């Protein structure tokens, strides 16, 4: 396993600022004693590690602010200015409907948990994205890590695949490692899977370099690095070292490298997901998760429909519907849905009323997210946004609750404290609750 | 001096012992033990004597019957530590000649009794060190009581509104949200008092306030949690806040919006504090109003700390010291934020100040700060380390082997200064700074807006300014006032890259003043002084910029339209132009001038408090990897410089040098601070911002690519440039290049300094290992082949490669270890290529250290 790199500024001593170890030795206390003392003093943060149900997460992020009314939370009985132009269609959950643009997803609604009452107070894109990637409200003093980075920090890589992967790139700046070392930042594919000739670069030895030369290069690198890396305390140098180790692991593992090879999927599987942005990114995510990636974030489309929400949704939604339905069905067929939690989210929702441009504006008071697999409930609608999608009418769910529940499924205690620069401990999630409504 | 240090050492030792024990107890989990072990200021054996006593505030004004002023007493010890002795001193309001006192001291506060002038006295008794007699310190401040019988009306503007800020009611997550919360909206952080008054008193009729039965007002019931409130209970029914709101509603909820005085300034006391671990210090905040009144707003201000691990502060203004360092403790009231620096010193270390004489004014200021914080600096870098560092920083390349060898052989005492002068004179130095400005000024082509040719001319114009060493104030002035066709006056592209007036104003503020005013577009800045008036006033300078197509379809003409305003969204009225922090300026109708000229004059003036310091700090950050204010473009009260004197000095030097930045760069590079070793010591490894050692920095994308090309002797084909050009010369921010993108080249989408990134990533490691850059260039440059051809022995080849890449000789251990990898083959090309690969992949190569 890779060494976990701590931010260099995380003080090796407690933040209470005990005196230096040197002064202790005068009292006959050695470093080991000191650390033992510190261990017992650190008990102020008590947490219990829950059993792990979900082994991986696929996070489908829809940037811009998905309209719930035009997707998972239609309001067929509301006046036209609230309802919009799209019809509602029945789903596999009796009495619940989705937008007409989600026919395939509606057919497997019995595998999903639709949360219609997510709520937070941040209606600006950056702040909303911050809330929905880090599950913290933005702070001027501290950069928070994204959920993917926390998972990578807590659980490390598996099967030599990076712990946290973004397809194709980090969807926003908050998808990164925040106050944690940049060693926990996402690995970005750098190329879009839907593109013809898609390839994740630099995974193979360059031409002409066989195994023995590759090994010699590594030995030589080890010799050259030794002096410098042993002397420096720079966090960035150590982060770079850990990336090299990870890169070696990845290169040495044909299975891990093969996970990035989308060409290996049969043509009909690629067709099933849809040969478009949504489909191929979701297929890529499935391949990665199947091979052992812990946390894959993918983004699709742009959903900031201040104008012509109907037209725009007609353009964007069908590819999502096809890809998402294929993903859920495919995971189920492969027996992976039980251990893979699929989260569909956006930074916020959109205003109850259609505006003068036929669009909807930002609305963070209530919006929908959808969970599937990883021990979440199968076939449930949680919460309600009332008759006009204006307020959470019942069972409001905060981003903190959502995150705490997901972390719980992953076997990560959300109240555990991580160390931020200056030795300030920060809980993974600030005061969220595990919501049994979401769990099977 | 010596005796003082011995004395300190004794104290430090005695503390160490008592702390050692307290730590052992803490193992039992008993937090309370630590409290007991902390210093008791009255215990003479451990505590140095107090040498002076000060009361804050320095004068007290009480102007109505219910007025109160909290006062604190701070005593300074012989070792420079300041101690809050408010609870240890004896307080007294002098009776003077009057029969009865004019004011009384109760509950830590002075309260008025009768009109007149009196004095508040504090006396601190301390046993002297020889225990025979006690000596005492005393201090006094004048107290002015005027209007002791006046019952002041509750002010909506100054009593009620601040409660909404203090209790968090108008925060963004609550009623300050743009759509309010649970049906009730307040303006975010109170930017719109009139709107708030309207919503409280008129919206939904009498629902929120019940003038007949004030207790039943929803406002009052919600605050104390008497009825369900999503935000919970904000304060107690017995609190001052409740009674203020109650009194206001009882009085009929009067509005004083029309004639309320404004808050002119805010003061925070004590103005500075030097504390030891777990010491506490109460802070007091005072507001001065435009009508001359001064008022204690400690109960109404919001307190925050720039670093709560160093000094935390609670809502009542009580600050507690934590780990060693410096923090800024701030109070926010109305739109004002002020701060006091708090220094937390370790109790245990015995510190010897550095004896290296300062190289220039920079060292005097850096060393002074390190001495205050008791952080010992690292030693001086070796010559080889220095030359590599300074060559990368100044010329964006590695030292040539011959250059290095000549430098090492040179015995002149001023050889470092000469090397700096030589590097500053190179064209590479100019290219590097052209790149910096191109990043900052967003030189990039944009579909349908900035044509490639216009962009190219813009880049060349910047390069020319830097080439000619144009004073930076003139450079920025010309840029801001540029008019005419963009092919002829390429600086006009600054207004082409960003067409919106408000956004242009934001860019100008951030790029040239380091101020982010973005927040104030929609509400008053939550952490700084900027209000919406400032924002729209500043934007008004750029609201009259006209743009029209030129003769060539790729060209735009930028001109002064002479009309166009920015409207303040709250009242919908145009704001007159207003410099940041200045007063609105009415520009004359006749003989009108381009508004941009007025703005440019103000920005580039030596009197401008932000311009020169911000520039100086940007240069500093280039050489130290971190600014004195960090981020360099986020200057605000709540983000203070880590060394104020140094920050100011760089700005005033730049002005003194007539904005010739090369002279400032020369000073920085010649300082000991820059020339320190990058290795840290036990005692300074935790320093982040005080420049005790040279920070190890990943080499920026463009420079790193140039270094790989240089080391391998293989030229790079870059977009839009002939073979052999340097990556620093790529003009277009939009140009696509995998290496540059992966290593964090600035995309130039915004003026933010954060656009260029240097964090390592997995993709970077993979690319260096397997990508075409390193492997391809080793093959392409054929260096090893030619060295072997010349008859060089493998060991000699390895040695030369070390010098090329790392600017140092390999150690014997390294050579021996590498030797084992190299086979018996007299021309071990593959093996040496692998060594070359390892050198270019080494951390030592990728980082500037």
Please characterize this protein's 3D structure.
The complex is a heterodimer of chains A (440) and B (849). Chain A has 440 residues and is an alpha/beta fold. Chain A has one domain (54-200, 260-438): Alkaline Phosphatase, subunit A. Chain A has helices at 21-25, 31-41, 80-83, 103-107, 125-134, 147-155, 211-231, 235-252, 254-259, 267-273, 277-291, 309-333, 399-409, and strands at 56-61, 88-90, 97-99, 112-118, 164-167, 187-188, 295-299, 340-345, 349-350, 362-363, 367-372, 380-382, 417-420, 424-427. Chain B has 30 helices and 25 strands. Chain B is α+β, with helices and mostly antiparallel strands. Chain B has 7 domains: 1-38; 48-149 and 262-345, Immunoglobulin-like (Sandwich), CATH 2.60.40; 156-250, no CATH class; 365-380 and 610-691, no CATH class; 381-425, no CATH class; 471-604, no CATH class; 701-848, no CATH class. In chain B, strands 2-10-9-6 form a 4-stranded mixed sheet, with no helix packed on it. The interface between A and B is large, with 75 and 84 residues. Chain A: This is DUF1501 domain-containing protein. Chain A: InterPro entries: Alkaline_phosphatase_core_sf, DUF1501, TAT_signal.
Give a summary of the structure in a few sentences.
Chain A: InterPro entries: Alkaline_phosphatase_core_sf, DUF1501, TAT_signal. Chain A: It comes from Adhaeretor mobilis. The complex is a heterodimer of chains A (440) and B (849). Chain A is of the alpha/beta class.
Main beta sheet strand tally, sense and closure of chain A: 8 strands, mixed
Give the overall form of chain A: globular
The total of helices of chain A stands at 13
Q: What is the spatial order of strands in the main beta sheet of chain A?
A: 6-5-7-1-8-11-4-12
The average pLDDT value of chain A, as a whole number, equals: 88
Structural class of chain A: alpha/beta
* Global shape of chain B: globular
- Strand content of chain B is 5-15%
Helix and strand run of chain A = HHEHEEHEHHEEHHHHHEHEEEEEHEE
Range of helix content of chain A: 25-40%
SS elements, strand count of chain A: 14
CATH class type of the largest domain in chain B? Mainly Beta
Taking Cα atoms only, what radius of gyration of chain B do you get, to the nearest Å?
A: 32 Å
Rg of chain A, alpha carbons: 23 Å
- Kindly report the spatial arrangement of strands forming the biggest sheet of chain B: 2-10-9-6
CATH architecture of chain A, please?
3-Layer(aba) Sandwich
| Biggest sheet details of chain B | 4 strands, mixed
> What class, by secondary structure content of chain B?
alpha+beta
């Amino acid at each position: 396993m890779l060494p976990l790199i701590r931010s260099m500024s995380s003080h090796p001593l407690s933040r209470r600022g005990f005196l230096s170890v040197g002064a202790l030795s005068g009292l006959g206390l050695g470093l080991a004693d000191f650390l033992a003392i510190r261990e017992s003093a650190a008990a102020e943060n008590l947490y219990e590690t829950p059993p792990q149900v979900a082994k991986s997460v696929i996070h489908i992020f829809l940037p811009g602010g998905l309209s719930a009314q035009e997707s998972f939370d239609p309001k067929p009985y509301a006046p036209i200015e609230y309802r919009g132009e799209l019809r509602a269609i029945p789903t596999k959950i009796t009495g619940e409907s989705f937008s007409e643009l989600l026919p395939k997803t509606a057919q497997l609604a019995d595998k999903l948990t639709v949360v219609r009452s997510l709520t937070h107070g941040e209606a600006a894109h950056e702040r909303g994205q911050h809330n929905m990637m880090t599950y913290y409200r933005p702070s001027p003093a501290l950069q928070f890590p994204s959920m993917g980075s926390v998972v990578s920090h807590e659980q490390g890589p598996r099967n030599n695949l990076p712990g946290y992967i973004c397809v194709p790139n980090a969807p926003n700046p908050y998808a990164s490692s925040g106050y944690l070392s940049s060693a926990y930042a996402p690995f970005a594919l750098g190329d879009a899977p839907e593109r013809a000739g898609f390839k994740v670069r630099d995974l193979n030895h360059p031409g002409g370099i066989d195994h023995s030369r590759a090994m010699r290069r590594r030995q030589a690198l080890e010799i050259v690095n030794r002096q410098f890396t042993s002397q420096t305390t720079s966090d960035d140098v150590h982060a770079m070292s850990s990336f090299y180790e990870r890169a070696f692991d990845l290169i040495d593992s044909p299975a891990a490298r093969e996970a990035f090879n989308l060409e290996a999927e049969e043509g009909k599987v690629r067709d099933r997901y849809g040969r478009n942005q949504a489909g191929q990114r979701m297929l890529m995510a499935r391949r990665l998760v199947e091979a052992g990636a812990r946390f894959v974030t993918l983004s699709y489309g742009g959903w900031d429909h201040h104008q012509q929400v109907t037209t725009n949704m007609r353009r964007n939604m069908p590819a999502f519907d096809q890809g998402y339905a294929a993903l859920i069905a495919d995971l189920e067929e492969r027996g992976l849905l039980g251990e893979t939690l699929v989260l569909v989210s956006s930074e916020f929702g959109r205003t109850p009323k259609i505006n003068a441009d036929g669009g909807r504006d930002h609305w963070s008071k209530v919006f929908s997210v959808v969970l599937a697999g990883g021990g979440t409930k199968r076939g449930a609608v949680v919460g309600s946004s009332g008759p006009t999608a204006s307020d959470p009418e019942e069972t409001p769910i905060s981003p903190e609750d959502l995150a705490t529940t997901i972390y719980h499924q992953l076997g990560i205690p959300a109240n555990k404290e991580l160390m931020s620069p200056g030795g300030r401990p920060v809980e993974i999630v600030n005061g969220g609750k595990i919501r049994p409504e979401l769990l099977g | 001096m010596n005796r003082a240090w011995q004395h300190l050492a004794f104290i430090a030792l005695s503390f160490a012992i008592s702390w050692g024990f307290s730590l052992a107890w803490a193992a039992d989990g008993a937090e309370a033990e630590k409290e007991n072990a902390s210093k008791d200021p009255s215990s003479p054996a451990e505590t140095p004597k107090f040498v002076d006593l000060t009361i804050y505030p320095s004068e007290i004004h009480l102007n109505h019957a219910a007025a109160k002023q909290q006062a604190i007493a701070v005593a300074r010890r012989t070792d420079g530590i300041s101690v809050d002795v408010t609870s240890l001193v004896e307080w007294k309001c002098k009776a003077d000649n009057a029969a009865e006192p004019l004011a009384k001291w109760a509950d830590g506060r002075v309260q008025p009794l009768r009109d007149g002038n009196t004095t508040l006295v504090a006396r601190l008794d301390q046993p002297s060190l020889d225990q025979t007699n006690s000596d005492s310190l005393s201090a006094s401040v004048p107290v002015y009581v005027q209007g002791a019988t006046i019952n002041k009306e509750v002010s909506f503007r100054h009593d009620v509104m601040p409660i909404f800020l203090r209790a968090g009611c108008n925060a963004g997550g609550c009623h300050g949200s743009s759509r309010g919360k649970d049906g009730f909206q307040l303006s975010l952080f109170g930017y719109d008092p009139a709107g708030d008054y309207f919503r409280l008193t008129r919206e939904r009729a009498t629902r929120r306030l019940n003038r007949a039965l004030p207790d039943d007002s929803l406002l009052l019931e919600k605050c104390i949690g008497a009825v369900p409130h999503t935000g919970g209970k904000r304060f107690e029914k017995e609190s001052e806040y409740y009674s203020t709101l109650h009194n206001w509603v009882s009085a009929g909820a009067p509005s004083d919006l029309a004639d309320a005085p404004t808050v002119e300034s805010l003061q925070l006391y004590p103005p500075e504090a030097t504390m030891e671990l777990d010491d506490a210090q109460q802070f007091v905040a005072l507001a001065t109003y435009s009508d001359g009144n001064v008022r204690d707003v400690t109960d109404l201000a919001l307190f925050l700390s720039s670093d709560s691990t160093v000094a935390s502060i609670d809502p009542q203004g009580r600050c507690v010291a934590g780990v060693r360092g410096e923090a800024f403790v701030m109070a926010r009231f109305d739109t004002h934020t002020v701060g006091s620096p708090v220094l937390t010193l370790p109790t245990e270390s015995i510190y010897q100040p550095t004896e290296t004489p300062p190289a220039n004014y920079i060292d005097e200021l850096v060393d002074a700060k390190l001495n205050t914080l008791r952080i010992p600096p690292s030693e001086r870098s070796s010559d080889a380390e220095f030359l590599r560092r300074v060559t990368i920083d100044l010329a964006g390349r590695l030292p040539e082997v011959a250059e290095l060898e000549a430098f090492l052989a040179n015995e002149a005492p001023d050889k470092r200064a000469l090397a700096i002068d030589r590097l500053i004179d190179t064209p590479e130095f100019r290219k590097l700074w052209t790149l910096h400005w191109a990043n900052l000024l967003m030189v990039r082509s944009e579909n349908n807006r900035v044509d490639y040719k216009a962009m190219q001319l813009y880049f060349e114009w910047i390069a020319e300014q830097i080439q000619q060493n144009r004073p930076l104030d003139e450079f920025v002035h010309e840029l801001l006032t540029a008019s005419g066709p963009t092919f002829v006056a390429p600086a006009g592209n600054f207004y082409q890259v960003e067409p919106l007036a408000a956004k242009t104003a934001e860019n100008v503020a951030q790029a040239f003043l380091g101020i982010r005013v973005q927040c104030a577009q929609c509400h008053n800045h939550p952490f700084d002084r900027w209000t919406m008036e400032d924002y729209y006033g500043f934007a008004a300078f750029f609201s009259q910029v006209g743009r029209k197509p030129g003769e060539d379809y790729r060209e735009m003409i930028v001109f002064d339209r002479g009309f166009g305003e920015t409207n303040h969204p709250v009242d919908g009225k145009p704001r007159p132009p207003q410099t940041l922090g200045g007063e609105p300026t009415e520009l004359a109708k006749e003989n009108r001038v381009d508004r941009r000229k007025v703005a440019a004059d103000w920005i580039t003036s030596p009197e401008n408090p932000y311009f020169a310091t911000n520039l100086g700090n940007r240069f500093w950050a280039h050489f130290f990897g971190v600014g004195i204010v960090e981020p360099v473009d986020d200057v605000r009260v709540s983000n203070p410089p880590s060394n104020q004197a140094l920050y100011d000095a760089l700005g005033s030097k730049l002005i003194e040098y007539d904005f010739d930045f090369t002279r400032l760069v020369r000073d920085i590079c010649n300082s000991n601070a820059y020339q320190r070793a990058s290795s840290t010591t036990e005692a300074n490894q935790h320093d982040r911002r005080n420049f005790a050692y040279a920070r190890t920095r990943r080499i920026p994308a463009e420079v790193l690519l140039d270094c790989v090309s240089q080391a391998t002797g293989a030229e790079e084909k870059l977009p839009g440039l002939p073979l052999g050009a340097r990556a620093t010369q790529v003009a277009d921010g939009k140009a696509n290049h995998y290496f540059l993108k992966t290593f964090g080249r600035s995309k130039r989408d915004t003026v933010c300094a954060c656009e260029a990134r240097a964090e390592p990533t997995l993709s970077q490691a993979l690319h260096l290992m397997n990508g075409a850059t390193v492997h391809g260039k080793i093959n392409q440059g054929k260096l090893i082949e030619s060295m072997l051809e010349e008859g060089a022995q493998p060991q000699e080849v390895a040695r030369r490669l070390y010098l090329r890449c790392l600017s140092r000789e390999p150690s014997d251990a390294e050579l021996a270890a590498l030797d084992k990898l190299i086979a018996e083959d007299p021309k071990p090309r593959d093996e040496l290529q692998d060594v070359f690969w390892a050198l270019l992949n080494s951390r030592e190569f990728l980082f500037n250290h």
